[in-house]
Automatic annotation (TrEMBL):
Keywords: Membrane, Transmembrane, Transmembrane helix. Residues 89-120 are annotated as: Disordered. One of its GO terms (molecular function) is intramolecular lyase activity. This is Chalcone isomerase domain-containing protein. The chain crosses the membrane at residues 64-83. It holds the Pfam family Chalcone_2. Residues 94-104 have a biased composition (Basic and acidic residues). It comes from Paraphaeosphaeria sporulosa.
Length: 444
């Protein structure tokens, strides 16, 4: 063998750490052919298992990553929903600490931004008026130029906290036009707040709007008398045990329906003028609000039809008669006039467009059960938002429509806002504590 061949075979520089070549196993070549095929099958099975293990590991990794992504989205929702705010004393202490920590000249050049989570900074005005704390810890909305506003001033409006920063306050009293006299001349009447609450939808509890029930001031004693007679017809006021019975009855699905049906069925001088004030907490449109009321009314009419059918079957069973199917459906909401009334109600919101956050939609119910719809929009100006003029969208004369809308919030198993119903029940209990006719000017 020449030197050239030896040089080509062995490199001049070899790595000292290079693995030494293993000696060839010549016994494998001497084995029989069936045994070599068996070994190749074993090698295939090992590769298949290794591939299956690798795929299983990738699937587990994918599942853990998906679980982490889902938890990262759900955890903030749970924290926002269930994390309690610090007590007011701690908040005041934190505010005082922030005030004490001065940045010197930087405060003059770049002042601190207003904190949006502060309850007073976000709601320093209400419908063009400044929100201040009057003597007696009353929250009022006073004119901007008022130096020492009082709750008894003519230009001030006393407010009630709603529990949401989107629509922080509701007025305790509002004025609405009502027909008076034989010629039905419109005049202003005062309505007082009985209770309010937030409507929430879906499992995320998304806030849609704040709704409050107002009762005409001159009709408070009528409602008071109806509620007292529900528990004790001979009493002029309720004692603690009777008040608890009334509360349970107003929260019971069946009893509450009977009580409010009896109150809403009255007409004329025995009727109670009421109004629902609806303020969206976020931008929405009239079609969305209308569809919510339409679905609620449809579910209530279905419940009434089912109860009527059950009563007819029970009556037929007791009389041992056979109830044959009839070509025309009988019932309170099965006639053609109710269908036309629902078309009128639906047409009130047709083509009205958007309902921005803070706009006011008021539903009124008169002495004869007629439904009126009023709307007050918000207008963007250079100085900020201000309330526009209140306009009437229309009315529906059939009292069944307004009665069903009222029952969506006051009675039944599933109400549109459980918080609103409980707060309204508290207001009802409050007016039954005093003798009939002696209810004070402020309900809440």
């Amino acid at each position: 063998m020449t030197a050239v061949r030896l040089t080509a075979r062995r490199p001049l520089f070899r790595c000292l750490n290079s693995p030494t070549p293993r000696p060839q196993l010549r016994r494998l070549a001497q084995q029989s052919k069936p045994q070599r095929e068996y070994l190749s099958d074993l090698e295939y099975v090992s590769v298949h298992r290794a591939e299956a293990l690798r795929l299983a590991q990738l699937k587990r990794r994918r599942n853990w990553l998906a679980l982490g992504a889902a938890l990262s989205m759900i955890a903030p929702m749970i924290l926002v929903r269930f994390w309690d705010l610090p007590p007011p004393e701690e908040q005041n202490q934190d505010d005082q600490k922030e005030k004490k920590e001065s940045r010197g000249v930087l405060d003059l050049i770049t002042p601190r931004p207003t904190q949006t989570d502060s309850p007073r900074a976000a709601v320093d005005e209400f419908q063009g008026k400044k929100v201040v704390i009057a003597p007696g810890d009353k929250v009022i909305a006073a004119p901007v130029d008022a130096e020492h506003p009082m709750a008894t001033d003519v230009d001030t409006v006393e407010l009630v906290e709603t529990g949401t920063s989107y629509v922080p306050y509701f007025p305790k009293t509002i004025t609405l036009p009502v027909p008076t006299g034989p010629e039905a001349v419109e005049s202003e009447a005062e309505y007082q707040l009985l209770g309010l609450g937030i409507r929430k939808v879906s499992f995320l509890r998304v806030q849609v709007y704040v709704v409050g029930l107002y009762v005409r001031s001159s009709d408070l004693h009528i409602l008071q008398n109806h509620l007292i007679n529900t528990v004790n017809p001979t009493a002029s006021a309720l004692i603690p045990g009777e008040k608890e019975d009334l509360r349970n009855a107003l929260l019971d699905p069946q009893r509450s329906t009977e009580i409010w049906d009896a109150i809403l069925a009255r007409k004329g001088v025995d009727a109670v003028d009421m109004a629902f004030r609806v303020v969206p907490t976020r931008g929405t449109d009239f079609a969305h609000l209308r569809d919510g009321w339409m679905r609620g009314i449809a579910s209530r009419t279905d419940e009434v039809r089912k109860r009527q059918a059950d009563l007819l079957r029970q009556q037929a069973t007791e009389n041992r008669q056979i109830s044959l199917p009839k070509p025309v459906e009988e019932g309170e909401f099965g006639d053609e006039s109710f269908g036309l009334a629902m078309k009128e109600f639906k047409g009130l919101f047709q083509g009205k467009g958007k309902a921005p956050k803070g706009s006011v939609l008021t539903l009124t119910r008169g002495k004869n059960g007629e439904l009126g719809v009023w709307y007050q929009p918000t207008i963007n100006t250079k100085k900020g938002e201000k309330m526009g003029e209140t306009t009437k969208l229309g009315s529906v004369q059939d009292e069944r429509v307004s009665r069903l809308v009222w029952q969506l919030y006051l009675s039944g198993q599933n109400v549109s806002s459980e918080a609103a119903r409980k707060n309204i029940v508290d207001g009802c209990i409050g007016i039954t504590e005093r003798p009939v006719g002696t209810v004070e000017g402020r309900v809440l």
